[in-house]
Known about the structure:
Layout: H1 2-11, H2 16-38, H3 45-54, H4 57-71, H5 75-80, H6 87-96, H7 99-112, H8 118-127, H9 130-144, H10 148-155, H11 158-170, H12 180-195, H13 202-211, H14 214-228, H15 232-235, H16 242-256, H17 258-267, H18 273-284, H19 289-300, H20 304-312, H21 320-332
Helix pairs in contact: 1-2, 1-4, 2-4, 3-21, 6-18, 7-8, 7-9, 8-16, 11-13, 11-16, 12-13, 12-14, 16-17, 17-19, 20-21
Amino acid sequence: MASSSLAYLEASPEMGSSSTQTSRQYEQDCHILHCYFSGNGAISNQKLVQIFVNRDSNMLKLVRQTYSARYGQDLLQLMSDVQRNNSLARIAYLRMVEPHERDAQMIRHSLFGGSLNLNIIIEVACTRPSSELLRIKHAYQSRYNSDLEKDLTMRVNGGFKEILLAVLKSCRNYGCKADMSLAMCDAKTLYEAMESGKNIDQKTITSVLSQRNNGQVRAILSSYKQLYGHEFGKSIKRSKCGQFGKELRVVIRCIQHPEKFFAKQLRMKNADGREILIRTVVTRSGIDIKAINKAFVAKTGSSLENLVIREFNNSKDKTNDLVVGILVGLIKG
């Protein structure tokens, strides 16, 4: 596959001179990466940063293929072996791996990599488009020979289990534009589920979430506010909603305002703060990293660029200048 892709880039007459130029660019990128990871030859830090900032996922896939054809090595495997203790390798790996494969691996590790990490599961399930979520589930099945929904059922308890299972099931309904008439009906259904009894109707709420993709859920939440004058999230703050309400609010907030969810994660002080920073910047670059930065500034008075500099400038690691350059470049877009 790698060799045939490379040959196509070099030889296809339809591609012309621009194809040749593109092929040379990938070969240059591979040379820089090979010099860096092998330790043979001096390289320009700026050029290395540009590879991970300026290439999109399709370009990086072709860089991987070209590297494999030229050097007989898998770049992902090279970076995977050292990414746990090397921030630059971690960034490079997250940028190089295909997004649905990356997310499948992240969920697997959050379920079985030690202690359960619900934040990563919520992050992936609630912020990825439904079409991408379907690809993630297929990648998970293919890579681990296991069903994601069954694994989540086994590892997650309480309201989060039912809520997240509903969100994962909803991705089957991808591809449709938001139906505002249906959203109005569903908003009324949610209101009845909240108000009709002494306790909220959890079954009806999870049923709505399981039948509507994330885009449609956002339309429902907008309709809810339009009809009743306040956010659905405010309704589930009340004591009658109990623990289920608290857990539902986390998921709803992430679907409705992903930038606020990520900004909150970045503000929290915990042991894996550096990993959260790297993961957020890399996975949300080109999507909503600017909105996340704005939400972060609104709460802290300081930018994500400053957070990156503070996090990586207090170490003697020689690769930190590269790490800062890549992350700041991705934030600025």
